Amino acid sequence: MPFIPIIIIILVVVLILVLATNLKVVQQSKAYVIERLGAFHSVWGVGIHFKVPFLERVAKVVSLKEQVVDFPPQPVITKDNVTMQIDTVLYFQITDPKLYAYGVERPMSAIENLSVTTMRNIIGDMDLEQTLTSRDTINSQMRALLDEATDPWGIKVNRVEVKNIQPPPDIQSAMEKQMKAEREKREAVLRAEGQRQSQILVAEGEKESMILRADAAKQAAIKKAEGEAEAILKVQQATAEAIKLLNEADPKEAVLRIKALEAFQAAADGKATKIIIPSEIQGLAGLCASAKAVFDSVEPNKPKPSAESK
């Protein structure tokens, strides 16, 4: 019969189509929740899977990556009755696809409502100042409470961050003025500290300069004293050498007396107001005076020149 090959071809094509439409390739970081006849059957992981036609269906495709949800600002009342707007960011990950598919209807809406309720309970036990300065505490408490509450849904809350806290306009204006005053105060303190450090550095520089000048003057005085001492030593050595040579020459008494007169003349030319004359020099001076008297007595006995000779 000519229709048999056509039927076979049609059946083969249908079989190929069925196989192609029921072969599923599960990608990395994804999971397929499979139902058979309306009931949960299994969870497919990474790889190739075949779905039984007309009996099984893919109920839900679940992403296993970490996901981020940014919730809009929510009004929250603090312990001291201040209403502020707080928005949060939630980081979560699906750990059990079955619980996520069957645990709660609309999981994202449930997480949002749960986070708002949890945040209001935490902020309600804090006053305004604690709320503004305790973000880490709020984040850790919210993460712990949300993780415990979402565990039956197959969701793990990894991190919760308070993104923004906006107080009422009047309180925000007062806070801005206070922050400005604190900033100006810190700037004044920093300027005063800078001036103090500058004065300290100038004083230390002057101190070092004075120490260096005093040390230089000290070194100069030492060098001058050493030079004078060396000069005196040279003079003494020269004098000693002269005396040594004089002793070696064995001078006569007359030479010694003449040297004594020269020394006496040098002493007399100085600035001393009192001079002690040795006895030897006194005798020599008397001898010179007697000689001078003899010559003076001889001069008057000379004949006077006549008027004609004039």
From TrEMBL:
Keyword hit for Iron: no
GO annotations of cellular component type: plasma membrane; side of membrane
CDD domains linked to this entry: SPFH_paraslipin (cd08829)
UniProt entry keywords in alphabetical sequence: Membrane, Transmembrane, Transmembrane helix
Residue intervals passing through the bilayer: 6-26
Localization in the cell: Membrane
InterPro entries: Band7/mec-2_domain, Band_7, Band_7/SPFH_dom_sf, Band_7/stomatin-like_CS, Stomatin_HflK_fam
Transmembrane helix found in the keyword field: yes
Bilayer disposition of the protein: Single-pass membrane protein
Residue ranges constituting the Band domain according to the UniProt record: 21-179
Domain of life, per lineage: Bacteria
Main location: membrane
Pfam families assigned to the protein according to its UniProt record, in alphabetical order: Band_7
Family of the protein in this entry: Belongs to the band 7/mec-2 family.
Protein name: Band 7 domain-containing protein
Organism of provenance: Flavonifractor plautii 1_3_50AFAA
